[in-house]
Give the backbone structure.
Amino acid sequence: MMTSKCSTSASIRKPPIEGDRSFTGFRAAIQSAGLIPPDYIEPGRFHRFPGANKSAGNDAGWCLLFDDGIGGAFGDWSTGLWEKWQARKPADEAERREWVAKIHKARQESERQRQKARAAAAKESIRVWNTAEPASPDHPYLVTKGIQPHGARIERGRLVIPARNAAGDIRSLQRIDKLGSKRFETGGAINGNFYLIGQPDELIIVAEGFATAASIHEATGHAVAVAFNAGNLRSVAQAILKTLPEVQIIIAADDDRSTDGNPGIAKATEAAQSVAGKIAEPGQPGDFNDLAKAQGLEAVAKAIEQARWAVSKRVRMTRPLEEIMPEPIRWLWPNRIARGKLTLIAGDPKLGKSLLTADLTARITAGHSWPVDGTTPPRGSVIFASAEDDAADTIRPRLEAARADISRVHILETVADADPETLEIRERMFNLKRDIQRLDDELHDLGDVVAVIIDPVTAYLGGTNSHTNSDVRELLAPLSKLAGKHGVAVIAVSHLNKGGSTNALYRVSGSLAFTATARGCWLVVKDQDDDTRRLLLPSGSNIAPDIGGLAYRINTKQTSVGEMAVIEWEPDMVEVDASEALQPDSEERTERHEAADWLRDLLWDGRMTAGEVQKAAKSAGFAWRTVQRARKVAGVETKREGFGKGATYFWDLRATKP
């Protein structure tokens, strides 16, 4: 069991298995990163210590030396530092995989400890803020700075300034004593959090310190966000712009001309450039509060009015194509699945899509050749996310039946967050809206991943409306970028909707943005002439020619836990067009029942207004009267909210969901 604090008691000192040399090397690696580790680092124990350039009360630095002493990890939460360390290269592939697994656990433990520390700091900050009294204008610090309290409070004689996120939640706080000494709540999150003075209008100014922000607000009347330090200017500006996309942002810089590189101006410039904003400078050493005391509030207002665009010259929007060197597409499966791209596989339930992804995983991890063309995939690891199957009784036996190298398969488990109230670690489902950075970290740690499989992709949207093009594009863009960064093939599995269209691209469930973002889209359909035969057909690609589809059947294979289904591929390609395969069979359902199936698919994720349903029906090619009649067949209930002209009618499937 790892603990969050280190102990230096002589009674527990045990040398690492490989001796003090590894211990010394680990400490040296930490020191070379600008950190001061504990005098003794106990193997297998999670240690906390001050972050870079932090006081003794800080514990943002951390390290974990593995039990065997030949590897470890360390970092600094205050700077985002994360490093892994090895005393020597792994002796063989088995030891390398063991080391990778330990690195993975170290990152998880680091994240759990950080979340717990942040939750504890947030809870304490809220308690302090709720019990503190409103600050009086005669507080010595306010008098010295010549500013008003602007909502600050007093706790034990010190000013208290809360750091809130864009949603208004208190995540930490800053205490300022009468002499101006400042200190943050230990373990609190500052990055991206701020304190807002005034009410936002068309312009928001972002400044470093509270006194600086107060002076600017008093001079201009505009809302000013306190970022607390130069390093947080960019994160705060971006958080504000995301919440208020139409607002203009000015970054008020501190002029640190006496410090090499003038970090105040440099960080402010970076922040302004990141939000296409302006930068204002005090025109003298110091900050805008110093300017106010030296020349008055009129000088502050004038300096803000003279803010300039952060980019001093026009930036070209174009780039000559001759400057861009051509690169070949890297294929996982030639002309079918590309590395660094998003590929979509869609089909109706019970057609073997999960068996298909198991077969792909087996070929990638074990190096089995691809069906039909006989090429061999680049061998590597696969990250496997499945919301519908259990890892122990389904996924592993299925992969073993498919002859996968299970040592290269990594199941995407739940994500751990700390409850802000109880400080307990809570597990939640991974989602693409919040956890792309965590997936990025995982890909970096594992190092040899060539594919990420997400089955089904709609289970990992994190509340994003799967039928809204703009929301889906915004969600998938970072995923596509991540695929390109690491050169991995992202294979997303989806379902088909029940619409009447035979155009394959319009039959994928949810927004058209799914198929538009994917570089390749494949459909799994049942052969209309043979109920036991499945077809994997291309339905669209802008990076490869149409080389035809494939066919497979589902057989069974005896495993250690009983019979498991496996895919048996046919040796030849099939020449069936995807749109042709989607044509209704001779026992075509009535239009009303088709509309009912479509309604169930549309409303599966949640209720919609009648107007939204009508608009979606028109896009899907259904007559509104047919959809209204299909409502009862689908088991959809309607509910009115409000009265008179302001009433809104909702269509809701939830009451009839299994």
Observations:
- The CA atoms of residues 497 and 509 lie 5 Å apart.
- The radius of gyration is 30 Å.
- Residues 1-19, 585-589 have pLDDT under 50 and may be disordered.
- The chain has 17 helices and 31 strands.
